[in-house]
Specification:
Blueprint lengths: L2 E2 L2 E3 H8 L3 H9 L7 E3 L2 E5 H13 L6 H14 L9 E6 L2 E6 L2 E4 L5 E3 L16 H14 L4 H14 L4 H13 L3 H14 L4 H13 L3 H14 L4 H13 L3 H19 L1
Antiparallel strand pairs: 1-2, 2-4, 3-4, 5-6, 6-7, 7-8
Helix pairs in contact: 1-2, 5-6, 6-7, 7-8, 8-9, 9-10, 10-11, 11-12
Length: about 270
């Protein structure tokens, strides 16, 4: 396999981005991209590396020199605080200027100058794009269709739709599922929390949050999430099982026994 876990080989990244492997090696050599890992002469790239390379690919056609592009990449890295996922950024052009948009905030990629804030009209040009319900549905269905074989493209489509519909519950859930599968647990967590804000009484969301927190070894957060899942769905076998396991792991045997007893009762009831 060329994609190892949450990282991708040079060839796999080149295939996803539709560029040559030599082009990626050149970007690395020029320190435009910093691989997530290096094994001898072989590079491994994380999902965020792919997003930065996508940006490089989009910015390069009209630019012969790497220096302006390197400044763009550095500015984007500076702009991204830990709480801001790279997937929330979108590249656009307007009047020959490269712009980066996160939600309703737009800034120039090279200078970092803020161009537009929430509430102001978008400038006419490539940024303004008509998206009716039919086109939204088509994009969503396309992302669903290609998610298994082209997760990078699917995430790009989902994210573009989320920029337009930030309160779309299903989009947050799809993004979370795909990001988790690609190894971006922090990104998946952000979208699950976003979904939980939209539907706070949904037991499935709290169940998935609990499982994700377990993956991140955040046991206390996992406990709180599974308890919320049980609050909204008292007969959830999966939630009680996870609670029993977590309490036992933490040495809280009384609580572990209580959920184990509930689990056994639920299993008996399902057989009767």
């Amino acid at each position: 396999m060329e994609a190892g876990g949450s990282t991708y080989s040079t060839r796999a990244a080149a295939r996803i981005l539709a560029v040559t492997p030599d082009r990626i090696r050149y970007w690395v050599k020029q320190r435009l991209i910093q691989p997530a890992a290096k094994r001898g002469r072989r590079y491994r790239f994380g999902f965020h590396d792919l997003l930065l390379m996508r940006m490089a690919k989009e910015l390069l056609p009209g630019r012969r020199h790497l220096q302006p592009l390197q400044r763009c990449v550095e500015r984007v890295r500076e702009f991204l605080e830990p709480s801001r996922p790279l997937t929330s950024l979108k590249l656009e052009t307007h009047g020959g200027i490269i712009l980066v948009r996160q939600g309703n905030v737009i800034f120039e990629a090279e200078s970092g100058q803020l161009c537009l804030q929430f509430g102001q009209p978008l400038p006419r040009g490539k940024i303004e794009e008509s998206f009716g319900p039919t086109r939204v549905r088509e994009r969503f269905e396309e992302a669903q269709r290609i998610a298994e074989n082209d997760p990078f493209r699917a995430l790009t489509l989902y994210n573009d739709l989320l920029n337009r519909q930030p309160r779309n519950f299903e989009l947050h859930m799809r993004m979370a599922m795909l990001l988790e599968r690609e190894g971006d647990l922090a990104g998946a967590l952000r979208h699950l929390l976003g979904a939980a804000v939209l539907m706070p009484a949904n037991a499935e969301i709290h169940q998935r949050l609990g499982l994700l927190y377990r993956k991140r070894n955040e046991n206390e957060n996992a406990l709180r999430s599974f308890l919320r899942a049980v609050e909204f769905e008292p007969l959830s076998v999966e939630a009680h099982r996870n609670l029993a396991e977590l309490y036992e792991k933490l040495g809280r045997m009384h609580e572990a026994t209580r959920h184990l007893s509930t689990l056994q009762r639920l299993n008996r009831d399902s057989l009767s």
